[in-house]
């Protein structure tokens, strides 16, 4: 059993499995903003909970300040189930909050704080379920594993990426897992639907570097790197990249067209015609952002770097782009789309590309989609 020092004021008891909301509040109070993460105190506290319930666990760390925790409750001969989630969160700098993002205030039936959705609420549910199993005498049908990781928001190099590369034995017998909420109910045109995630878009981080005329800022200058970058960003911010229709998206929209009223059915069918897709998305009233992301590569400028003095026009400016690629697409594809869209030729550098699996094989095409009382189960992939 791993050792864990007390690093948080949250009490450790053997009845917390009945209080997932309080587990969530305790988790939120750990300021695990990534970067830098510093998830160790939170992981250690989870270890203390497992200790209190008499459950053994192990920690694995590439960086000692960013450990990952793995624990197992033994079950019967049934297939094992993995419950996994991350405890790091994105930053809060420069944001206006109704309540302190790390106080976990409860108001109007909601818990307020950074990580309530992504994904400390999920970790709280998994942890409550896991501890409940430990507290009960009845053995689960199969082994149940709990995995709590660091560094999801930074790409997973210290988290799941590290575990998959260095400790693949942890996952050797696991065919079933519940992670970051791949499915949820969704009401569309009065019809309750239940999408099933079959793939994910691929993370592709790019740097686009622009070069131009430079000099003293007291004189007028044309063709500057800053101007080129600004024009590029404005276009990327306001225009879509080309349409890509995967087999999963095609089946999803066909299934929805079969289930919704005729007017909305025509919209979903038209989404599958690339010449109409964008116009239909502009006209739709619900779920447009999700559908938009399913049908396009996306590129969002997130960081700009350039210039080092107030009165000097910089020769070079770089913008960071968080791109998410449709399954089957490569970095070269989105770079070509960005050049075509903007009419510019920046120097692109691939900072990170997490190549995903190819588009899911969903044959036979229509038999795979199931219905129950106008509740289609349709494939989708996560954005």
UniProtKB/TrEMBL annotation:
Taxonomy of the source species: Archaea, Methanobacteriati, Methanobacteriota, Stenosarchaea group, Halobacteria
Cofactor(s) of this protein: Zn(2+)
PROSITE patterns (alphabetical): ARGE_DAPE_CPG2_1
Record-linked Gene3D superfamilies: 3.30.70.360, Zn peptidases
GO molecular function: hydrolase activity; metal ion binding
Keyword terms, alphabetized: Hydrolase, Metal-binding, Zinc
Keyword Hydrolase: yes
Family assignment from sequence similarity: Belongs to the peptidase M20A family.
Signal peptide segment: none
Transmembrane segments annotated in the record for this chain: none
PANTHER family reported in the protein's UniProt record: ACETYLORNITHINE DEACETYLASE (PTHR43808), PEPTIDASE M20 DIMERISATION DOMAIN-CONTAINING PROTEIN (PTHR43808:SF8)
One Pfam family here: Peptidase_M20
Protein name, UniProt field: M20/M25/M40 family metallo-hydrolase
